[in-house]
Amino acid sequence: MNGDESADVVGAGSLGHFDENMGLSYGDGMEGFMKRLRNALIALGIVLAMGTPLLAHGQFYPLIVNGSTSLQMDYNDGVLVVQFRRTLRAAGQPGTYVHNVTPGTAAWVDRPLNAKEPLMLKQTMTPQQAETAMARLRQNGGYWRFYCQNTGQGYFTVSKSEAAYASVKID
């Protein structure tokens, strides 16, 4: 286009006019701009208030649980519930699980659970996934990694989980 030409463009939900000498213009000046800005901010506020999945609701952290024949577990209505005890140490790396996470206990990778954190977690999963997790957690040394977030309601919610394996150095 040369300086004399212009073209219609679509932007911000209304038809605007592009003039190479003047830029994008909606023909309604500052008042129109402020209305569009207000509407965009209202829409953003609605999205934030709705808590859409596009927005992160906090991070999930790996919690290492060591199974036990006495570990309390239940699976009902698609939700696995596991109750455990605290340990005094961080789980650490797989080479330290055996010493740091005793049977029936759980710990974060970087620290032990504190006194204000729950001793129960809940994860939505299929019956087959629950069967696999529960079979492993019924064993002493059956480690499972749950990615948890504290709900503030007496339990952790879990985004995903997987088998975890302790490594033992053999001399």
- Number of domain units: 2
Beginning-to-end CA distance, first to last residue: 77 Å
Mean pLDDT: 81
Q: What global shape is seen? A: elongated
Strand content: 25-35%
Proportion of helical residues: 10-25%
Estimated radius of gyration: 27 Å
Low-pLDDT residue spans: 1-24, 47-56
Largest sheet: 8 strands, mixed
The ordered string of helix (H) and strand (E) elements is EEEHEEEEHEEHEE
The number of helices is 3
How would you describe this protein?
With 171 residues, the chain is an alpha+beta fold. The protein is built from 3 helices and 11 strands, in the order E-E-E-H-E-E-E-E-H-E-E-H-E-E.
Task: Present the secondary structure layout.
Layout: E1 6-11, E2 14-19, E3 23-25, H1 29-50, E4 61-66, E5 72-76, E6 79-83, E7 85-86, H2 97-100, E8 105-108, E9 120-124, H3 127-137, E10 143-150, E11 156-163
Parallel strand pairs: 7-8, 9-11
Antiparallel strand pairs: 1-2, 2-3, 4-8, 4-10, 5-6, 6-9, 10-11
Concise overview:
By secondary structure, the protein is an alpha+beta fold. It folds into two domains: 6-50, no CATH class; 61-163, no CATH class. It is 22% helix and 34% strand.
Q: What keywords describe this structure?
A:
alpha+beta, 171 residues, 22% helix, disordered N terminus, 2 domains, eight-stranded mixed sheet, three-stranded antiparallel sheet, 11 strands, 3 helices
